[in-house]
Amino acid sequence: ILNVEQSPQSLHVQEGDSTNFTCSFPSSNFYALHWYRWETAKSPEALFVMTLNGDEKKKGRISATLNTKEGYSYLYIKGSQPEDSATYLCAPGLGGGSYIPTFGRGTSLIVHP
Amino acid sequence: DTGVSQNPRHKITKRGQNVTFRCDPISEHNRLYWYRQTLGQGPEFLTYFQNEAQLEKSRLLSDRFSAERPKGSFSTLEIQRTEQGDSAMYLCASSLGKAGTEAFFGQGTRLTVV
Question: What is the pLDDT of residue A98?
């Protein structure tokens, strides 16, 4: 079982604040990492798929970086909005024939207007 | 086909009863995953299929759990002799064949065992 750590567990910020979360995972045999956003009463929605060391991805105000050698990924949200309130999950997976995304506990973000 | 569909959305059952959940993946997706999520935890992997073949099962999956994916289309997850500890959200996800591609999730089935 892949040990995936996400921090912080929860975060309350004011509208307009920028924030970032961390996902840590074992670096050996890394294959890919997914970031998901999970809003209450909805399905988890993929934000990014990252595979290469040094990858940087961006979607609007949200961006992510990946360091496979040291085993971490950061997710950044610039100028948080109330609609960004959700749980953010990372899911790295190891290589080999049976790639399986393994989820951390997630970071619960609440953005106050 | 607009996405992954799971039925039922909610299920309340008495301890000891059997329950079955269904997942209809996106039609061209050949990988299908089942996860379970309890309060305060991330989704925990249960099992996955590549087409109709069940390729891996988590050690979390006791003998009371069984999953099938006949003909590589929809999948069912059955829990026999349910226990209160089985209460959770059961999530299904599907993806295209290449490992590492984005998985699309259904809205889940919320199971409550009373």
Answer: 65
Chain B residues whose beta carbon lies within 8 Å of the beta carbon of residue A31: 99-100
3-state secondary structure at position A58: strand
Q: Is B16 left (phi over 0), alpha (psi -120 to 50) or beta?
A: left
Compute the nearest-CA separation of A39 from chain B (Å).
11
Distance CA A65, CA B24 (A): 33
Supply the mean pLDDT for chain B: 93
Neighbours of B81 (CB within 10 A): 12
- Reported as a single tens digit per residue, the pLDDT across B79-97 is 999 999 999 999 999 998 6
The tens place of each residue's pLDDT in chain A, 113 residues long, gives 678 999 999 999 999 999 999 999 988 888 889 999 999 889 999 999 999 999 999 999 999 999 999 999 999 999 999 999 999 999 998 776 567 888 999 999 999 99
Chain B contact for A110, CB < 8 A? no
Sign of CA dihedral B19, B93, B109, B4: negative
Contact of B32 with chain A, judged by CB distance below 8 Å, is answered with no
What b/e readout covers A19-54, taking b as 16+ CB neighbours within 10 angstroms?
A: bebebbbeeeebbbbbbbbbeeeebbebbbbbeeee
User: Which of the 8 DSSP states describes residue A51?
Assistant: -
Residue B3 distance to chain A (closest CA, Å): 10
